[in-house]
Amino acid sequence: RIRSLSGEQLIFSNTDILKSRIRNYKRMSERRVVFSLNVDYDTPVEKLQEIPQLVKSLLEKSQQTRFDRCHFFEFTDTALRFETVYYV
Questions:
Q1: Strands, DSSP E only, in the chain?
Q2: What is the pTM of this model?
């Protein structure tokens, strides 16, 4: 029996549980976080070049995070997308 985020109780049979994978997040020493940051196409090149270092410095201010990378990821229809990966 598992309580869902919205409050109802979900009941699984043993067969269902044994046939599926169970992830125990409590035993993880750290979690990987990936997020995207969209930047307007009109942003000057100098500012774009500063983004990875700016994001890195913000994440390193917290003792509970470990920065992995931040880089330009893709061109979208409306913005330039940067991807950041860090661990908590």
A1: 2-3, 9-10, 32-40, 66-75, 79-87
A2: 0.72
